[in-house]
Q: What sequence folds into this?
């Protein structure tokens, strides 16, 4: 069930998604600021990654765990994991499960770099500025 409403502005979306977690706020801001550059084909522009988080039911601390623990604060990896879920490369339920593990065991469920490589194969413009 989505918590983002069509009439929400950017700040409202960030507050709803972060659920009071400051690390999640940081991750959401970085995601919003970089999505268009990393994923120029995303139909939702800077909101693309955030909409995927909402679609997968990943909120609050789980956003921070995905960003910090699973993707080592590498926003291109976080966005690749989310796009991999959208593209069916990995199940969104696996992403959600991994992100919910505050004991860092979620990292064993997701190979962020491997998913990044697979997303780049399917989306040639994805992170095209990275060598």
A:
């Amino acid at each position: 069930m989505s918590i983002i409403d069509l009439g929400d502005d950017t700040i409202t979306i960030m507050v709803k998604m972060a659920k009071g977690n400051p690390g999640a706020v940081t991750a959401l801001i970085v995601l919003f600021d970089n999505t268009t550059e990393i994923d120029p084909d995303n139909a939702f522009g800077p909101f693309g990654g955030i909409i995927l988080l909402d679609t997968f039911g990943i909120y609050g601390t789980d956003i921070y765990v995905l960003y910090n623990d699973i993707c080592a604060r590498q926003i291109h990896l976080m966005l690749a994991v989310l796009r991999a879920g959208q593209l069916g490369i990995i199940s969104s339920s696996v992403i959600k499960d991994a992100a919910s593990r505050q004991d860092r065991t979620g990292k064993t469920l997701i190979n962020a770099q491997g998913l990044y490589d697979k997303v780049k194969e399917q989306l040639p413009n994805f992170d095209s500025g990275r060598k």
The helical segments are 10-18, 22-38, 48-56, 61-70, 75-87, 92-99, 112-122. The mean pLDDT is 95. Residues 4 and 124 are 29 Å apart (CA to CA).
